Each structure stands twice: as C-alpha cells, then as structure tokens.
C-alpha cells in the first residue's frame, strides 16, 4: 500500500530567529522512511505545496510530521509536531483525510512551549 502526503502550508509559526522570523521546513517520517520539504526562508506563514509517497508496511505505524526552523550554525530548532496513525487514513471513507489544518504539539508533555 502507498500513503500520499501533501504538505501545503503552515501559519502563525513562532519566531525562532533574531530577525523575528523563522526558516521553517517539514520533516516526515513513517517507519524507516524519511522525507523533508524545502526550507522557506524568513517566514512565519510558509507555503510548501509538496507531495510525498510512503510505502506502508504496517497499519499500526504513525506518520510523524515535525516542523523545524533551519539554523545555519547551530542545530535546527523544533517548532512542533503531530502524529497521525496510518490506520486512520485507510479507515476513512474515501481513503483520505482531505485538506485539514492540524495544531502542532510539543515534543513531550512536560514541554510548556505552545506551538
């Protein structure tokens, strides 16, 4: 089975750079497979419009979508993530979740940072 993921855009991302903006990109992971979008420079409301294809080996897996801010000299800053069970997509009536906005969550429950 194949899972097609379209990363369209984000809005109201937190500013992580000294200039009051961010250089965001999206990292997608399903099992061992990883992809990432291009970096959108100096934006809190980036548009990517990129599509990715994953081979699904286990319906119990989760698609992990992470949004990060690219840093040139330090490690990239984590902005937030979401986890979508693959079974939720294949259980949907038409096999699609459609175009939907998702709120980003912190990496762990102890984090106080709101995304």
- Strand order in space, largest sheet: 3-2-5-6
| Terminus-to-terminus distance | 32 Å
Q: How many domain regions? A: 1
Q: Provide the succession of SSEs.
A: EEEEEEH
How many helical stretches?
1
Rounded to an integer in angstroms, the radius of gyration calculated over CA atoms is: 15 Å
Report the strand count: 6
CATH superfamily: C2 domain
- What is CATH's topology name? Immunoglobulin-like
Give helix % range.
Answer: under 10%
Instruction: Estimate what percentage of residues fall within beta strands.
Output: 35-45%
Poorly predicted runs = none
What is the overall shape?
Answer: elongated
**CATH class category name:** Mainly Beta
Largest sheet: 4 strands, antiparallel
Structural class: mainly beta
CATH architecture: Sandwich
Pfam family, one: C2
InterPro entries: At1g03370/At5g50170-like (IPR044511), C2_dom (IPR000008), C2_domain_sf (IPR035892)
Domain C2: 1-102
Organism: Punica granatum (Pomegranate)
Describe the SSE topology:
Blueprint: E1 2-9, E2 24-30, E3 33-36, E4 47-55, E5 62-69, E6 77-85, H1 86-91
Antiparallel strand pairs: 1-4, 2-3, 2-5, 5-6
Protein name: C2 domain-containing protein
InterPro entries: At1g03370/At5g50170-like, C2_dom, C2_domain_sf
Domain C2: 1-102
Task: List the defining traits of the structure above.
39% strand; 115 residues; Immunoglobulin-like; two-stranded antiparallel ribbon; 1 helix; mainly beta
């Amino acid at each position: 089975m194949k899972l097609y993921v379209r990363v369209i855009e984000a809005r109201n991302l937190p500013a992580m750079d000294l200039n009051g903006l961010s250089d965001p990109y999206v990292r997608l992971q399903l099992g061992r497979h990883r992809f990432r979008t291009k970096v959108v420079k100096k934006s809190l409301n980036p548009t990517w419009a990129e599509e990715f294809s994953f081979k699904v080996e286990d319906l119990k897996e989760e698609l992990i979508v992470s949004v990060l801010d690219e840093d040139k000299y330090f490690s990239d800053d984590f902005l937030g993530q979401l986890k979508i069970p693959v079974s939720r997509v294949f259980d949907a009536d038409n096999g699609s979740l459609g175009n939907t906005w998702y709120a980003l969550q912190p990496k762990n429950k102890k984090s106080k940072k709101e995304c």
